[in-house]
Specification:
Length: about 450
């Protein structure tokens, strides 16, 4: 192609690309909130939403488009870069971290809600009827992990099934690469190189997509607030406060766990901030996967851990959702004027944790889990419909918490495994080398980015 963009727009684009992503995201977030509230106040949703919705949808589509290429390539590269025994050990650690933090989050959400009683004294909405959503049983979820038809699994967006496929093929490739048979070994190494190249390619696309993220962030947040408006959250402010408060508490808990494993917090959150903002606005931990994977790489974690832990976390680890299920169940019980017994609270914890394993990291998935928890203890559906009204706002905080939990688990497990922090080790070494090289009086830092 010989057509060149005009110089002015080219330099404008270059200037845009040179600004750090986090600033673009922050500006987009604030501008989106202001725009959304103004649109709501002016009552011009009908004119604004047809513009905002497609812009936001393109962002969601771009992210979703990357999920499977990312899982398949990074998981195979990850699996083939470590021994099967080591993979098993990492898997057990990751799973244990996810399960324990999810159960803990549910207790935090329940506890804070029981202490602050959100919704007590609130009247029920008219006759809001809502059908209890169908939730797959644990057995169904487990069977669904083994796909009869890989293409169907792709089409249905079954992340666990695709992970299973990539894992099985990755393991077979590991054996092929280590085979005694020279031909098999050669082919295995060749294939591995190709998949490595594909993973590299996917990451280049990820970086490109992230440059569109600020536009998507602006459109998504503006659309939500244009729809609900500031007053809409008024009656449900207490529940919102409990959920957001618990999420903040949980982030502090992650920080403490990270400190326990001697992870530098500045470095962790410096890398985690992009996926946290993305999760907040997209309300999908699966959709945020490309951004969290990029963040894990920036933290220095190797594919051997994140290639497995992040896709798994996006599907089974939902600490923020667990908080929400706990808090919202108490809220529903308060509105219904029912108190929950210790046995019922235990049921909520169990159902909440199990449901989080079977529910995908997509917007609104937590609402399905809430329905499951409330029905399991015989609470009415009408107050759940009330919660559904502000679900988007709660979904933002809980998804951010879900993604932070995935990254914390990934980082913690990586520091318990030797050689799983490639970049960090290298950077640390470089930093030390530079410090040694520069004179003691030199105050100039390495100026990394
Ligand atoms: N949106 C959440 C996520 O993707 C799930 C939920 O609805 O709680 O992690």
């Amino acid at each position: 192609m010989s057509t060149q963009p005009p110089a002015a727009s080219a330099s404008l684009l270059r200037r845009y690309l040179n600004i750090a992503l986090i600033w673009k995201m922050a500006v987009a977030l604030v501008a989106g909130v202001v725009a959304g509230l103004v649109i709501n106040a002016a009552g011009v949703q009908e004119r604004a939403l047809p513009v905002l919705d497609p812009l936001g949808e393109i962002f969601l589509n771009l992210l979703q488009m990357l999920i499977f290429p990312l899982i398949i390539t990074t998981l195979i590269v990850g699996v083939t870069s470590i021994s099967p025994q080591r993979l098993g050990r990492i898997g057990v650690k990751v799973f244990a971290f996810y399960l324990l933090t999810s159960a803990f989050s549910l207790v935090v959400g329940l506890g804070l809600a029981l202490a602050l009683s959100p919704g007590a004294g609130l009247s029920m909405p008219g006759r809001a009827e809502e059908e209890a959503a169908e939730v797959p049983s644990v057995v169904e979820t487990l069977v669904g992990i083994v796909p009869a038809n890989p293409f169907q699994a792709l089409v249905q967006g079954n992340v666990l099934a695709i992970m299973f496929l990539a894992l099985v093929f990755g393991l077979a490739l590991t054996y092929m690469m280590n085979s005694e048979d020279e031909r098999a070994q050669e082919l295995g190494l060749f294939l591995r190189k190709g998949i490595d190249a594909a993973a590299d390619l996917v990451f280049r696309v990820v970086r490109g997509v992230l440059e569109y993220a600020p536009v998507g962030v602006f459109a998504l947040i503006a659309a939500v607030l244009a729809d609900t408006g500031a007053e809409a959250i008024g009656p449900l402010l207490q529940l919102t406060g409990v959920v957001y408060g618990s999420v903040v508490l949980m982030v502090v808990v992650y920080a403490l766990i990270l400190l326990l494993f001697r992870v530098p917090l500045v470095r962790f959150f410096g890398a985690a901030k992009d996926p946290m903002v993305t999760a907040f606005v997209t309300r999908s931990s699966s959709g945020t996967l490309p951004v969290s994977t990029a963040a894990a790489r920036r933290m220095g974690v190797r594919e051997g851990v994140y290639g497995f832990s992040l896709p798994l976390g996006a599907t089974v680890n939902m600490d923020g959702t667990a908080i929400y299920v706990g808090a919202a169940t108490v809220f529903v019980a308060n509105i219904a004027g029912q108190s929950l017994s210790v046995g019922e609270l235990a049921t909520v914890v169990l159902v909440g944790v199990l449901a989080s394993i079977g529910t995908a990291g997509v917007p609104g998935a937590g609402l399905v889990m809430l329905t499951m928890a409330t029905t399991s203890v015989g609470l009415p559906m009408a107050p759940v419909a009330l919660v559904a009204g502000i679900d988007a706002l709660l979904d933002m905080a809980r998804t951010m918490c879900n993604v932070t939990g995935d990254l914390a688990g990934t980082r913690v497990v990586a520091s318990t495994e030797k050689g799983m922090l490639r970049e960090r080790d290298r950077e640390d070494e470089e930093e030390h080398a530079q410090q040694r090289l520069s004179s003691p009086a030199s105050g100039r830092g390495p100026g990394g980015g």
